[in-house]
Amino acid sequence: MNWAAVDLNLLRVFDAMILELNTTRAGDRVGLSQPAVSSALGRLRHIVGDALFVREGNRMVPTMRAEQLAEPIRTALRGIEDALGNVACFDPGTAKRIFRIVGSDYFSTLLMPGLARAVRESAPGLTIQMLDHPSSAVARLISEGAVEMAVDSGSVMPDWVSSQRLYRSVMVTLVRRGHPVIAEAGLRPGDMIPPDLFCALPQVLMSMDGSLSGSVDQPLKEKGLSRRIAVTVPHFHAVALAVAEADLIGNLPEQFAARVAALLDLEIYQMPFAPPPIDVMLYWHSRHQSDAAHEWLRQRIREAMIFHRTAEA
């Protein structure tokens, strides 16, 4: 292998391709055009003596040699980033960088108004991408460098993941205004729904995998009760929309519920046996702890989320 021909940017392109398996998206990740990515891959193929990526139907897949190179190259790149990051300065006014944050539509709804405003005003060259993945994938995505940060509800993380609590949330029940059964029971917004009525009313559940149980069910089970799940949907917004259009009830974190209730003319009630409060956390890889750009963005995220703290948080 001709080591003199190895350009650091070629390795960055390779790492981006391993993550994206698409030349256009890989280019977006490293700030290059699609033709420039293809050219870089061509040079790297010549140096390595391997195709590295081959087309399989409508997608690109790595060769065995590419898979062997992936982790050593990523480790080397992260080491260089760490070494340079300790001395590099960050000017938000001129910086151009992409940050990927994983978090459900619940978190992006609360985070993005404030964060988008702060970024546009102070760091217009930054691009923020919100991605939606299950909590079980967060540690892997951070480890692979597929995302820089994650907003999630208190998942157990490896030791190499740094974290900070953003706020605490409890679950509440959303009901459409004028729901006939709620009205007949004489309940008003803010009241606690009686256990028997809560369990009898058909409910919509946010479930990414279609499971028919959630955090609400364990407290009910401990009381010998169970509820009727009529609909499952994969997003929090879909819960609110279903409640707004049907005689269903839905249970959502209080901060998110307050935001969508105002938009969809919904009412908020207390649950009879609410699950324990949820700590909403910001996660990032410990190697980025002293990265000036990371520190700046983490502070903006904390500022954007501070308005969602309750008195107990």
TrEMBL record:
Keyword Cell membrane recorded: no
Q: Which residues form the HTH lysR-type domain?
A: 6-63
- Stored Pfam families: HTH_1, LysR_substrate
Q: Which UniProt keywords apply?
A: DNA-binding, Nodulation, Transcription, Transcription regulation
A Gene Ontology molecular function term for this protein is:
DNA-binding transcription factor activity
Tell me the SUPFAM superfamilies matching this sequence. Periplasmic binding protein-like II, Winged helix' DNA-binding domain
Family per record? Belongs to the LysR transcriptional regulatory family.
In Swiss-Prot or TrEMBL terms, this protein is called DNA-binding transcriptional regulator, LysR family
Which species is the source of this protein? Bauldia litoralis
Specify the taxonomic lineage.
Answer: Bacteria, Pseudomonadati, Pseudomonadota, Alphaproteobacteria, Hyphomicrobiales
